[in-house]
Design brief:
- It is built from five helices and five strands.
- It is of the alpha/beta class.
- A five-stranded parallel sheet has the order 2-1-3-4-5, sandwiched between helices.
Length: about 130
């Protein structure tokens, strides 16, 4: 599994990344929306996780909006401190797989992995 994590922070992600690495994920990192957009043109990622705020002051959901315009089939997750209702309203129509809390941990990584695995299995099963 190839992941791209977009965040200017490294410390809050250590436990989350460790879980994915223990489960054989290949993780790339970046800290800005322009860099995310550049990376998705060069590589295919199974999942792109975008922090609330990126370097340059870009809002995470705005970055996902731009990202999905470039690749409508990209699997994205977002970090957000918004309530579930507010996040749903702010992200409606973006196809965000899951909202993760700020400072996601091992349990969040496992939950996201299981959710993505179900989606990828459904996609594989629908191909003739």
């Amino acid at each position: 599994m190839k992941l791209l994590i977009a965040s200017p922070e490294k410390e809050p992600w250590l436990e989350f990344e460790a879980w994915f690495k223990e489960n054989n994920a290949d993780i790339s990192r970046t800290d800005s929306c322009p860099s995310v957009l550049e990376k998705i043109k060069k590589e295919k990622f199974d999942l792109i996780i975008v922090d609330e705020t990126l370097s340059g002051g870009t809002d995470g959901l705005n970055c996902i909006r731009q990202l999905t315009m470039e690749d409508p089939f990209a699997n994205c997750a977002a970090i957000s401190g918004l309530s579930e209702k507010d996040f749903h309203e702010a992200s409606e129509g973006l196809g965000v797989l899951m909202c993760l809390p700020p400072n996601p941990g091992k349990d969040d990584a496992k939950k996201l992995f299981e959710h993505l695995a179900k989606i990828l299995d459904l996609i594989k099963g629908s191909v003739p």
